[in-house]
């Protein structure tokens, strides 16, 4: 039997770290949450998301250690393997960033383009390599992986929005979008099968599509949750584009100084005259009178001489 049964450790295990570099990573993750996610969600929703991700992860790792003991009969999995750290919250952060900024290119190489969609899978593979090198314990890999899965499940189906909808049903946030295009169709079939099973046991709600068939010229289909999420993403992209344009405008203004009146060249006159060259009016009657009088004067001079 376990020497102690401290139920509150399910809430406090994520505040404990045994290694300095793990602590540094945790501080960076919490800082990024506070700067990028909290302004969008609010403090209450962020705390709710934190407990939704971390508490089930502790239960998952506990069950995994019990399974390991059942296969190996090593008592260390029951009494000597502590569960701690913010690995689940780190995995959840990669999912949130993917939802906010999908298809964002992080780096470009001659072979491929590293997108934000690839980050969750990359950090899972990296954690497995680190575990094989004995750099991280096995519970780190489990918590990171299930942090990604639990956070995606909550954001996909259950997170409430201001317009009354829940979840994010956009195609850019599907489970298959976390994987490379070569295996994405296979993952999509598997994910859809699991989703249909969850709908039957009423863990998830089915897609509710609303169509407007009153007009024969157009057909509108809306999926709850997708509009709000897409609108937030478009708003973020628009703000980023606006900031970039403002920076370009400021740099252009600094490069080309304005020419004030006091800085005009001394070769130019101080005052300028505006001339309207748009039209010229000629009085033909006056011109004919002037020419005839000039002709009479010439005739008189000729007779006198």
TrEMBL record:
> What's the domain of life for this entry?
Eukaryota
Query: Which segments cross the bilayer?
Result: 20-37, 49-71, 83-101, 122-155, 175-199
Asked whether the UniProt record includes Transmembrane helix among its keywords, one would answer yes
A cellular-component GO term for this protein: membrane
Q: Which UniProt keywords apply?
A: Membrane, Transmembrane, Transmembrane helix
Q: Which InterPro entries match?
A: TMEM115/Pdh1/Rbl19
Q: Per the database entry, which stretches of residues form a coiled coil?
A: none
GO annotation terms (biological process) = retrograde vesicle-mediated transport, Golgi to endoplasmic reticulum
Q: What's the short name of a Pfam family annotated to this entry?
A: DUF1751
Localization, per the record, is:
Membrane
Organism of provenance: Adineta ricciae (Rotifer)
Q: What name is this protein filed under?
A: Transmembrane protein 115
Q: How does it sit in the membrane?
A: Multi-pass membrane protein
